[in-house]
Amino acid sequence: xxxxxxxxxxxxPTLELRDVAKSFGxxxxxxxxxxxxxxxxxxxxxxxxxxxxxxxxxIVAGVHRRDSGDFLLDGIHVDFGSTSDSKAAGxxxxxxxxxxxxxLSVTENIFMGRQPLTRGRRVxxxxxxxxxxxxxxxxxxxxxxxxxxxxxxxxxxxxxEIAKAISLDARLLIMDEPTAALSGVxxxxxxxxxxxxxxxxxxxxxxxxxxxEVFALCDTVTVMRDGEYVATKPVAETDxxxxxxxxxxxxxxxxxxKTPATVGEVVLEVEGLDAVGQFHDVSxxxxxxxxxxxxxxxxxxxxxxxxxVFGVDGYERGTVTMHGRPVPPSxxxxxxxxxxxxxxxxxxxxxxxxxxxxxxxxxxxxxxxLSRLGILTEGAENRAASxxxxxxxxxxxxxxxxxxxxxxxxxxxxxxxxxxxxNPKLLIIDEPTRGIDVGTKSEVHRLLSELAGQGLAxxxxxxxxxEVLGMADRVLVVCEGRLTADIARDDATPESVMRAATTSLxxxx
Amino acid sequence: MSTYPEHARPLWQRLLVTRESAVIFLxxxxxxxxxxxxxxxxxxxxxxxxxxxxxxxxxxxLPMTMVIVTGEIDLSVASVVGLSSVLLGVLTQAGMPFVGAxxxxxxxxxxxxxxxxxxxxxxxxxxxxVTIGTLALFRGLAVGLLGxxxxxxxxxxxxxxxxxxxxxxxxxxxxxxxxxxxxxxAVLLQYSSFGRGIYDIGLNDEAAxxxxxxxxxxxxxxxxxxxxxxxxxxxxFTLRFGSARGDNATGLELQVIAAVLLGGVSIFGGRGKLxxxxxxxxxxxxxxxxxxxxxxxxxxxxxxxxxxxxxxVMSTSVLEAVSRLRSRSNRRAxxxxxxxxAGAGTHGRHTS
Lengths: 509, 352
Prior knowledge:
Chain A has 509 residues and is of the alpha/beta class. Helix content of chain A is 33%, strand content 24%.
């Protein structure tokens, strides 16, 4: 019904966004994003990590409200205050990992919150079952509507979300990286479903990092970069090279002052590291004075590799050695003793005890050594913490203030201070500048460069391509849990890194 | 580059504007009021009975504070008291020397604590559920060993020692080893690297793990300490009343937890100090003994202490909510810490 029902003149796009802007505090997520999706077509939305795709989708879904710009459905201006507004308007978003109620049946999940009722005001199970069966046969999938949602594969869960969208008569379906966790057969089935929905006249938006899928499935592609619209091309008239160029078309300025350092002996050696479902056969080295960048798309397994090396997560096979000595798995204390420092991605959850004071956080790793006869005083912690806080110019009123009240940049300085205080030989730093202001960002970059100059080995994970290219002496690229490239600084270009990050080894062969 | 002041607030504020000082202040007020207004309250006998009554609570509250600071709980402590009491009785009755029986009872307490600790720390089960189970299990073992009878034959040197006072002061002799233990626990929790780790675990166990704190071993250790000290309290309990029974100290766990919370320890973990807990234990002891001297029934005393506990927990959670709101608005003023523009697929994949 709604799939074709529109009083708008023929040719009016189902969804149109023009110059949409959105900021979160000082962080600009979208500056001028545009997207125009026609009925009866599948539209690909591509862009680097942080290009603003998710924010754009969340605006369409009613999760966020835009700051400015036009948002039209069938040529009519709309403004969603909540996700239920967007659902009522016929928009359905299918996320990478759907959230179903595990203890309810497949049918109950589809009709959650809007179960049909019998005359006696009871839930009409028979009607629900009939309709669910009809939905699945229409989608051409064999799923038992009576089974509980628990234990269903991610692919099947997505199908249930799609069935739900159809039963709601959604005319715009947005799929946010639906294939990331699917096998080849499941991808084929999903594509078949997507094509049949398109042929019914619905509009689909498909977000993916895999170009082969974009070219196999989509009719049109829109490229975003840094929160801005870049270009829209019919898929038939473009190729991979052009899209990669559009995605990364940005100059790497000298924002990142990496100074050359003498590269010394091997500090960290990782060999054949393997963790099922996360990464496979990962081997690399990091040397004294070297910054090795670990690049790749979000979800490729970069953080998982780092966590396994440091021992906060386990791994099944492989070895990690520091200065030629093996480091036991799953033992952060042993890793620290071997000279590793790990600055995790999530400052608030993993990097800091935010409700503890600055001094306690900075002295957090070294405090064992600060005790005299087993007694550790606040004074000893303060004396140990103060020089490091000063060296990093942490802005705080006093050493006993809670870290919770600080800005993201200052919190990151506290985490860095904490680890530098351990006098590490290897620093693993995951997203060193995520969510911190530009000023602190360049301070962090200068510091990393300086530390490398003093002989520290640094393994840096970053989703920001300019940061990787500007800082790293060598770039390792991870794609789908495997190292796909090891690129020297001089050969590292946005194109070469992006290509390795989006091409799995199977596809290269 | 300037040096940092060590403290944001002056010393008097740091000392006075805390939950611990509020409890200590309340304790002083109640003691002074009782001395002035309650007949016989200032007599030495009152002091003796008060201290002997609160001694087991005080003992168990020491490790219990650590357990609660890590964000866990141990409801099985009173059953460990009962089990160690019964073991002491049964073994003494069977002719084992008293000291040997006491060592076995202590070891049994440590094993009970290790059982709890293993299930909570290494298996990862919720401590509330585990210790509700072991509360019944340990109590069941105690009653099973001795039935409904009691062992009352203990060496008089030991039973007398449990009740002896220092000269004419009215202060029981056993207070001395208990004080030493309290100081030891205070140093361990407040002035050691291990103690810092305990607080870190309670505030953010993931960050603690990322900092190299051995979260599992720390939790295991505090549960073992709790079992051990509960058994010690069980030995004292038995000697003081000269009776080993399976149902000794039933319900004591709630008094212990009440005193710990009254002393300013957060049930959510990460906050609270031992001096406050000691004051909380004494406060409950003073209030109940003063009221008893005035002829108030036990039932009414329970109601009053219950209300006091609810009020104190309410006040701390209200304070916490206020400070959380304040820090949140500060944070908002400082800007969000995570860029929301992290691109597609920010749904975490660390779940496996």
